[in-house]
Amino acid sequence: MMEVSLADYRNFIRKRTIFVISLLFLLILASIYSLLVGSSRLDCKTVIDALMGTGTEKAETIIWNIRLPRVLMAVSAGAGLALSGLITQTVLRNPLASPFTLGISSAAAFGAALAIVSGVGGIMLETALGGFQITNFYVVIISAFAFSLIATFAILTISKMKGASPAVIVLAGLAILFLFSAATSLIQYFGTTEQVAAIVFWLFGSLSKTTWVSLEVMSLVLFITLFISYRWCWKFNALYLGDDIAKSLGVDARRMRLVGMVIASLLTATAVSFLGVISFVCLVSPHIARLALGSDHRYLIPSSCLIGAIILLVADTASRTLFLPLTLPVGIFTSFLGVPLFIYLIIKRGERAWW
Predict the structure, then answer these.
(1) 3-state DSSP of the chain
(2) A GO term (biological process) for this protein (predicted)?
């Protein structure tokens, strides 16, 4: 009997490992394709030569200054948003929770917009890639993170209220979302024409603002939070089962919930500061991974990150290739892609519990 159980467990591990490896392979293929396509279509040899530093000056400029940082940012930001959504859903035990639906993204957007309008964030208009570029992005990140923490602590306070159901928490998050959206509109009203244009362009959500410096910051935040989250995967599994079970297993549910929401806020604030508001990636990615793998965070964390990276990368590639020579904001594509996908997941799941 023990041999059968051991064989079943090994089969369980093998299937989930194969799924994660398949996602990684799919992400690599999507990244290669994204490097090849664009307003200037390049073949594989040209791209390889440019990456090796032996290509033409034009090809190297396109690959190293435009496409490669954009692809890597899509991977980093998509993985970060997916991880923030997964952590939020786990610590609040709410399938509808995400930084977007709970108003954390909206609060981060307000913080960044406030930094831009006040002048401390700094903006540079008419950049080489069009639009604008934030010059003092560390100030913008701090401002976005501070306001995302305000929304986070408001959600945590409401979740501790007696009788606060998952539906109440989501409704409170929607209220916070509308509050900060209205506040963002208010500061746009008092901003200059240039500041308003920068905020509007930024709120669309776009990877065209990507630089190597912003990519380094986003990647560093992702690496640190991913490392911490994966070390805590067993604690997340315990928290997933409820506070009482987590306590019996020696997990401080209150502390985990607080730290988890802070991590989710940091990931969201960093992504929003550089890219603007990108919706649905943080909500849909964990659900797709959970449908395929179950609730074991040893596999749920890497698969959610890979799915989020694939979704954002595919959406960005589509946004800059489908309507050439126009490049549409990726935030529009993630919404168009995320809404039908999420509705499909709801219909597929039916009346069965999400947890």
Answers:
(1) CHHHHHHHHHHHHHHHHHHHHHHHHHHHHHHHHHHHCCCCCCCHHHHHHHHHCCCCHHHHHHHHHHHHHHHHHHHHHHHHHHHHHHHHHHHHCCCCCCCCCCCHHHHHHHHHHHHHHHCCCCEEECCCCCCEEECCHHHHHHHHHHHHHHHHHHHHHHHCCCCCCHHHHHHHHHHHHHHHHHHHHHHHHHCCHHHHHHHHHHHCCCCCCCCHHHHHHHHHHHHHHHHHHHHCHHHHHHHHCCHHHHHHCCCCHHHHHHHHHHHHHHHHHHHHHHHCCCCCHHHHHHHHHHHHHCCCHHHHHHHHHHHHHHHHHHHHHHHCCCCCCCCCCHHHHHHHHHHHHHHHHHHHHCCCCCC
(2) siderophore-iron import into cell
Cβ density class 274-293: b for 16+ within 10 Å, e for less: bbbbbbbbbbbbbbbbbebb
Give the count of beta carbons closer than 10 Å to the beta carbon of residue 15.
13
Which of 248, 333, 236, 242 is CA-nearest to residue 290?
236
- Least confident stretch, 42-51, 59-68, 331-340: 331-340
Spatial separation of the C-alpha atoms in residues 259 and 244, rounded to whole Å: 18
Residues 19 and 17: their CA atoms lie apart, in Å, by: 5
Quick one: pLDDT band at residue 165, thresholds 50, 70, 90?
low
Give the pair of three-digit tokens for residue 170.
């989501």
| pLDDT tens-digit map of 202-211 | 777 888 878 8
